[in-house]
Amino acid sequence: MNLSLPLLLADPGTGSFETVLLALVATIALTKVFGELAQRIGQPAVLGELTAGVILGASLLGLLDPTDPVMHALSELGVLILLFQIGLHTDLRSLARVGPTALMVGMVGVVLPFFGGFGVARLLGVELLPAIVVGAALTATSIGISARVLSDLGQLETPEGQVVLGAAVLDDVVGLVILSIVASMIAGAALTVGGVAKTSGIAVGFVVVALALGSIAIPPLFRVVARVQMTGALGIIALGFALLLAWVATKSGSAMIIGAFAAGLILHPTPQRREIEQSATQLGHFFVPIFFATVGASVDIPALMTRDALLVGGALIVVGVVGKLAAGYAPWWFKGQRSLVGVAMIPRGEVGLIFAQLGLASGAISSAIFGAVMMMVFATTFMTPPLLGLLVKRKATAEAGGPDDTGIDDLVVGRSRIR
User: Fold this and answer.
1) 344 and 304 in contact (C-beta within 8 Å)?
2) Among 26, 57, 84, 152, which is most exposed with the fewest C-beta within 10 angstroms?
3) Could you write out the three-class secondary structure of 31-88?
4) Start-to-end C-alpha separation, the chain
């Protein structure tokens, strides 16, 4: 049977392969341009990439269709690489180092925004499941954005900076558990105490078991892999491990992004982490902006411009800011600058976007509610760098004192340009 190359490359979905190529070229070009522009005005690159997606989406140019099967698959790979990087960047021992203070900030930073967002959404007439998705999207704190801005201001190694990092880790871990619960509800599971406990147990249990087994089996394996002289072998095998755990997570009844996150946690203590991060970041520079662009392309501007959507979006911004600020003041015994901790917890960034995209793709939230959540993500991420600049006396940061040039910081924020 003779299959021509054009037939093999034909897109069985909504458009031709040529259409997909055009969308990819436009997405790569515009996300890089707008990401650079965002950094030049002191904002994280993710905001520029989201803006590029809005421009490319159906509301404006119509070049990027987020429902296209190929673009959707590339976007999903971007999410997995992003969560793998977050796991690689996460040192669970940081929670122990900052102890009860980070625990208090993290828990209050989850509880207040979740119930605040859920309550506001319900008061404004949003149905139960969409309101839960909205509340879940408010729980996250962007590790990448917070770490980069604090480093640029010379505050990453201070007690306040360590509390923020520890609390942000906790927020994202708890947020991923909430995401598993939401995903189960979207799939049709009933909202009961038993159902929530079961889903939470599966998600937490998966991470615990993966860490316990992985910490024993993986380091020796990667010591062997490190001896392979083939260029890039270590990074590719590490990414394959992340994809494998993502698959295992789905088969165990959890969310695939929890598997990718767990893979990063397992590999964080390995001596080869730097090389793994570099390899993952190289791939991430292609896939992660596609994810952010498809999220932006999903914004329905006409639906967002309705009175109800703007009302919900404005309310979520207020709740999102107040909830995280209050979390900074929750540990009354902390002698540091609690206002700095609260402000640094505000940006939702990449994890909030994952929540919103899951809700939209599954039909759990409407285009209007998705747009309202996007308003909250944009606003909370946009306001953080200048607010922190007002709170902190600027001082030069040594190159070695900041976060790594590779990893989650580079993928979400870009090279350090915040002034």
Assistant:
1) no
2) 26
3) HHHHHHHHHHCCCCHHHHHHHHHHHHCCCCCCCCCCCCHHHHHHHHHHHHHHHHHHHH
4) 61
Q: Which domains does the chain have, with CATH numbers?
A: 18-61+70-192+272-412 (1.20.1530.20)
Judge whether residue 135 has pLDDT over 80.
yes
Residue 264 · residue 279 · CB < 8 Å: no
pLDDT in tens, 286-345: 888 888 888 788 777 887 788 888 898 899 999 999 999 999 999 988 888 888 999 989
**Amino acid letter, 333:** W
Angle at 309 between CA 305 and CA 313, to 5 degrees: 110
DSSP state string for 293-325: HHHHHT--HHHHTSHHHHHHHHHHHHHHHHHHH
Q: Which DSSP helix (H) or strand (E) runs through 249?
A: helix 233-251
Between residues 90 and 55, which one has the greater pLDDT? Answer: 55
Task: For the chain, give the percent of residues with pLDDT over 70.
Answer: 80
pTM greater than the 0.85 cutoff: no
Residue-wise pLDDT for 221-252, tens only, equals 777 766 665 666 777 888 888 899 889 888 87
Joined together, the tokens standing for residue 392 give: 């902190």
Identity of the amino acid at 289: P
CB 160 within 8 A of CB 344: yes
Residue 267 near residue 88 (C-beta atoms within 8 A): yes
Asked if residue 281 lies in contact with residue 97, where contact means CB atoms within 8 angstroms, the answer is no
Chain mean position to CA 130:
19
Q: CA–CA separation, 28 vs 22, rounded Å?
A: 10
CA distances from 248 to 14, 119, 135, 203, 252 (A): 30, 35, 28, 12, 6
Distance (Å, whole) CA 209 – CA 221: 18
Residue with tokens 């149905």: 127
Sign of CA dihedral 206, 207, 209, 215: positive
pLDDT in tens, 68-93: 888 888 888 888 888 788 778 777 77
Show Cβ contacts of residue 73 under 8 Å, excluding neighbours closer than 6 positions.
none
State the amino acid at position 176 in one-letter form: L
